[in-house]
Amino acid sequence: MAEITPVTEWPDYSDNPRGGDPITQDLNAPYDKGDLCWLLVCTILCWQITPAIGFLYAGMHRRKAALTIFLQSFFCACACGIQYWIYGYSLYMSHTTNPILGDLSIAVFHNVLAAPSMANSDVPDILYAAFGFTFVTATAMILAGAMLERGRLWPSMFFLLCWTTFVYYFLAYWEWNPSGWLYQLGLYDYAGSGPVHIASGFGALAWSLMLGPRITDSTAHERKRAIHFKPHNPLLMCIGTVFIWFGWFAFNGASTANLSLRSIYVVVNTNLAACGGGVCWALLDYAYTGKLSLLGFCSGIIAGLVGITPAAGFVPVYVACLVGVLTAIASFYVAKYKYLISVDDGLDIFAIHGVGGYVGDILTGLFAAQFVPALDGVSGDAYAGGWWNQHWRQLGLQFAGATTCAAWSFFVSCLLLFIINKIPGMHIRASEETELRGLDFAYISDVDWEGLTPEDRGILAIDGEGVPRGSASSNNAEKVTAAAKHD
């Protein structure tokens, strides 16, 4: 048996990108087990954010589309995860000097093993790659809600894969790779406001505008535009919010890429911002309607989490709640007056994630304090802070970075949707008939729609259930009655 010696010094990356020979060397020796455990556990906790967003969106949809959007959460978790493994991680974390985009040198995690990650030398490359997987799947799922009851399933899946390729990985490289031009510029984005929230929010705006508003039929067969419907399942919506909040502690907390005082500080900031956002949105609802809204609490909590994402590792704990409050105020009024631009964004993805992320970036420039990132024991004086430390230039950098992310995501999303819509068989919007029935996914799988009477079809349309074509049934009447009574 070969003698195993502990690694005492990492070889140059160009000489051995794997970090050493695991047959003859102990590649674990340089790493602190606490750091490894913290990041690995947080990676596992972060994974459930993607299906949690599916729960949230499913509860906020009408019932006929609830399963469709939850299916999207599994698609994002699976297909976007495979894409990330094949080439995504390589595009934004390869060791290149290009300021725009990486190469395929570490595609399929080739040579991704024990060498220190570029995010923090305290954790190995393979662990940081696993953590990054949860970011892209959650981002794609945030965006997926923009298809809201009117987008076709297959074109939407194809669009999500194209979007992550041409929007997410470009922005992630610009902000997180040491060679990226926004990173070099000095932008602060602790846990992904630009590539995650601003990008998905403005991408959702583009998608919603390209799809147009939903339609519905009244009992008198008079068509009307449908901008807003109440959530069909508030409990499901609350469950999604709870798991997102829970997962966001790991999402933000582990972005220090080590276990340190900064990690603890970030968790405290994250919680306070969510609390401030939830209370603020609920009070604003009460001021306008005289009632406390469960949807308002959920929206405000998410807005607070969005606002603190870029700031959690930079701002003092004294202002974390204020960040959540200010983000919630901005998101609330954008959601309230979105009708002015005739956009049917029924899940308020643009208001909460796009505008919330943008506001969070600006607040980071205002409140960033030099001592907060130094709590990781690694950064030292690498960060000059923001206006809190009289570093006036930082606010301009934050504004420029947020605007860049918003513009890139919006225009590239529009271009991708336009091209996909021109591909035969890939029209991005469902037909009116399909939209009214919710045919893409359904609770009932064996009702012959063509064999139903007009009255029976009306029952299904009113009930909101979708029914696939061409399936045989010997007793449609009983199944229609069951569908109409289904809750």
TrEMBL record:
Alphabetized PROSITE patterns for the sequence: AMMONIUM_TRANSP (PS01219)
Keyword annotations of the record: Ammonia transport, Membrane, Transmembrane, Transmembrane helix, Transport
An annotated Gene Ontology molecular function: ammonium channel activity
GO cellular component: plasma membrane
Cell location: Cell membrane; Membrane
Record-annotated Ammonium transporter AmtB-like domain positions: 38-443
Membrane-protein topology: Multi-pass membrane protein
Statement: the UniProt record of this protein carries the keyword Ubl conjugation: no
Region named Disordered: 466-487
InterPro entries xrefs: Ammonium/urea_transptr, Ammonium_transpt, Ammonium_transpt_CS, NH4_transpt_AmtB-like_dom
Transmembrane region(s): 38-58, 65-86, 126-146, 153-174, 194-212, 233-251, 263-284, 291-309, 315-335, 347-375, 395-420
Family to which this protein belongs: Belongs to the ammonia transporter channel (TC 1.A.11.2) family.
Name of the featured protein: Ammonium transporter
Organism name: Stachybotrys chlorohalonatus (strain IBT 40285)
Phylogenetic classification of the source organism: Eukaryota, Fungi, Dikarya, Ascomycota, Pezizomycotina
